[in-house]
Amino acid sequence: MKKTLASATLALCMATTALSAQTTLILGEAGPNRGARAVATQAFADDVTARTNGDLVIDIQWGGALFKADAALQGVSDGVADLGTIIGVYFPQEMIAYGIADLPLLNADELQVAGEHQVANGLAVMLAADALGLDRDAIARGLRAFRGLPGRYAPAGSVGHVRFIEDSIATRPLAVAAALRATPKPLVWIAGGKAKGASLEALVPLVAEHVDLLIGIGEAGPAFEAAFAGATRAETCSEADGRAGLHCAVERALRFLHAHHAGRGHVLLAPLAASFDQFRDYQERANVFRQVVASFADGSGAELGSGLGSGSELGSGSGSGSESVPVPGCADRTGSAAESGSALSDADTPSDEAKEERWTRSS
């Protein structure tokens, strides 16, 4: 990071020619004037002054209690400061909003990948590529063209107005949390596999806010259902075979969204568990998920597994008043659609509509 900032800013400094008098540039620094980062930043400023024989001076405005990171960025944007530094991974949205020096920062909606964590990844790539001396227009073109990788929060197909996202490599709570935040509501979350022993407590508030239905699969499915049942509707597909389990989960997700959300929404595979109980690895799990989704899109999904069977109704308490829910690609069989006990609204929030638009472009 220090090398990158030094290279970018020093290039600007050395490009300044014909200085007839001392020139002072204001640098808005997000961090306080203490520690190794402050020492390195001050050393950089002193080096600039030495290299220009005192004609160019960097006046560092240090961060801290009265001068926050966003103020440093805003100062650069408004022209109050001439230069600025920031740690990109902590402030991806703020960095996207401003152009710092001449690095090829893009607007988030120029990227074909979705999610704040993907934006942060893009920033890291940009900084590394710039430090290696790659052409900045080429960096920007590459970032705009990148469509993501299978298994890593990528579109997995659509069935009607239901979009499927697979993040098969998301096996840790941090990765799953990023995926849940990035996916618009209404949201069905498919999770499970071979448990890795991670604590689930920290995810409960996030699940309560973002998830409309959790469907557990694999060995960990019943445990996940129990852990999150107090936060959202939760159930389990108990099939031992991995393909059959994913088929069951996709079919239930479609029936739920058609019964309660007019056939619109998103289904996210973010397992929070390893794949080895049912699959060779996370890549095979991702590929099978895509194949199952495709089978429902072309209408053949009803022939691939047991789907809904005894005890597999959506939620508990279904009985009189249950209805048959037609779903594209599903067999013409009666599925119980219980009235939701949740107070969640079916309407998308403005932020969800914005995410929906981005998924439309990237799918």
What would you say this structure looks like, in words?
The radius of gyration is 25 Å and the shape is elongated. The N terminus and C terminus are likely disordered. It folds into 2 domains: 144 residues, no CATH class; 201 residues, Alpha-Beta Complex (Protein-Tyrosine Phosphatase, Chain A), CATH 3.90.190.20. Strand 4 and strand 5 form a beta hairpin. The chain is α/β, with parallel strands linked by helices. The strands form 2 sheets. A 6-stranded mixed beta sheet has the order 4-5-9-6-7-8, with helices on both faces. The chain contains 12 helices and 9 strands.
Rounded to an integer in angstroms, the radius of gyration calculated over CA atoms is: 25 Å
Could you give me the name of the CATH homologous superfamily of the largest domain?
Mur ligase, C-terminal domain
> Per CATH, which architecture of the largest domain?
Alpha-Beta Complex
Category by helix and strand content: alpha/beta
Please identify the top-level CATH class of the largest domain.
Alpha Beta
Question: How would you sum up this structure in a few lines?
Answer:
This protein has 363 residues and is of the alpha/beta class. It contains twelve helices and nine strands.
Question: Topology, pairings included?
Answer:
Blueprint: H1 2-15, E1 23-29, H2 35-51, E2 56-61, H3 69-78, E3 83-85, H4 92-97, H5 116-131, H6 136-145, E4 154-159, E5 161-166, H7 173-182, E6 187-192, H8 204-210, E7 213-217, H9 221-228, E8 233-236, H10 242-260, E9 264-269, H11 282-297, H12 350-362
Parallel strand pairs: 1-2, 1-3, 5-9, 6-7, 6-9, 7-8
Antiparallel strand pairs: 4-5
Helix pairs in contact: 1-2, 1-5, 5-6, 10-11
